[in-house]
Amino acid sequence: MALVKVKPTSPGRRSLVKVVNPALHKGAPVASLVESQKRGSGRNNNGHITARHKGGGHKHHYRIVDFRRDKDGIAAKVERLEYDPNRSSHLALLLYADGERRYVVAPRGVAVGAQLQSGADAPIKPGNTLPLRNIPVGTTIHCVELQPGKGAQLARSAGAAVQLLAREGIYAQLRLRSGEIRKVHVDCRATIGEVGNEEHSLRSIGKAGANRWRGQRPTVRGIAMNPVDHPMGGRTNGGGGWHHPMSPWGTPAKGYKTRKNKRTDTMIVRRRHATKG
Q: What is the pLDDT of residue 238?
């Protein structure tokens, strides 16, 4: 992959930086592994906007990704690498020895023709999926399950990775990219290595219209609104008071703890904000 800065033939292209990967497949995805996707637009069943700044965007299908990796003991060959409009990482199309094809999140360094495998007996190499009890301590992993058999939930975006720190009894300790240390059952599966497309964060969109292509509508600052529209609105250059950052409904927007899942608090060994408790 390479970062490409295009010629400034227009204002929108002057700051455009693209991530180009010549190895990506240029055709359509596998028809049996895609399904239709409903337009979100941030509205609920009553038509009310419940998630702001969503709407429009280019149509695309959802790629059915195998996050369970439960075909144990059957070798698979990476047939091709594909772009996925639904996530920052790329996809790898696996062709199993029995003829079945599945999409998986493409690991870093895994190229077309590579042999991948899943199961407790799989070799320790990038792209292979094993239970945490069979992965050596200190290994970098991604696509980690939180419950055995549920499918990968942690470290699925481009360039993401988790480090296996220790194993104690039926739990393994993982250090997440945020700095949080968390316990996960040793029967949960994880994939060796890091997620590919690590240069995704270095791209530059270039213009506002490119975000509209992605279904992102404009965001207006609260301080630019009137007091009737936002708690932070109405400030003028000559007066007005500073207000704590908050949402239009008065919920603090910075530094406010929003975690409500106390059921799994015991699984967190060290929080990502250790000084805040």
A: 46
